[in-house]
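Recap from last week: sequence in, structure out.
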Amino acid sequence: MPNLLLTGLNHKTAPVEVRERLAVSAQELPQALEALRACPGVDEVMLLSTCNRVEVLASGAEGAALAAEPLMETLARLRSLDPAPLRPFFYVHAGEAALRHLFRVASSLDSMVLGEPQILGQLKEAHAAARQCGAVHSTLESILSRAFAVAKRVRNETAIGRSAVSVSYAAIDLARQIFGDLRPRTALIIGAGKMSELAARHLHRAGCGRIFVTNRTRARAEQMAASVSGQVLEFDQFRARLHEMDIVLASSGATEYLIRKDDVKAVLRKRQNRPVFLIDIAVPRNIDPAVDELENAYLYDIDDLGREVEANRRARQREAEEAEQIIEEELQRLLERLRTREVAPVIVSLQQRLDEIAREELERWRGKLGADGARAEALEAFTRSLLNKIAHGPMVEIRRAATSPEGDRILAVIRRMFRLEGE
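Predicted structure tokens:
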């Protein structure tokens, strides 16, 4: 088993004001990795810093005294912080527990939004940065490659990432259900707040053909439109162009309805009753609920989307149970491979030790047998046969140790019995 340690904090253990103080930017990463690698016992190290977590994965040579405390203190010192008040926010995992946590993070089972895809990309970026700095090589390289493969298997074999669990994403998911391909579609975003921005980004990623943004403050609309390759509509003119829009998403701070039933009636006439999809995620609402009475007008408010999100969240939770089984299966497979790799040197050492004993005894007896070659050959055959029989039991136990929870204890006993402690 590799000498492995993982320590850090995340959205479950630390509030955002703590996480943001310890966050490390991409520009600061090389310096941080160098400082972490200088900690006692550390041979390889990777640092993952996102909005929801700051984690250090470290490995050391066999027998090295890897400890979480110096890693925590180094993270704090990088930010000129006192480590003492930060310790309660940190968790520590070693060996098998560290591997399990890494697999769960890569598969987004430890994320704030269960099943979100961003964390795997962030983990791959952290790996690439550490490798470029020379902080990751043999041990962590193989472990991280396995973590990426596990995450891919979870994505392929479960539906954990296939349903929307945020209001803004649920809105775009519904638009896809109504229109299918969004590339030929035109969308209007009313308002330029956080929810509108998220929805606009989801629309852009979904390939929506044209995106318009309107807002009372034009500068904010321009900023948001630029981020999604969109265009700005003047706020006092957007109603005149509503008929061009296949998708209308409203999330402004207006206290009255911005779009009324009569407005949409006129829109549908101009569209020759081609459907229009309206999403109202504002509170108070921006679109008159009576619009939903019109044929070919599909109106969803934040409660409708909330119900969709909750149903999807429950579905993801069910998928997460299957994902946990995949992770456990892959973890045990990796542990078995690592233990098999560990026992190989013990087998070689035992074989060498027995060969050494055989040579010493044969040399001693050859002098007594004189020139009798036939008896010497018989003695050599007998010696090797006897040692092979003696070795059979220990060899079986060594191989069994590769898959046994008591493997380390079994190997230690065999090393002591045959004086292999120095191997």
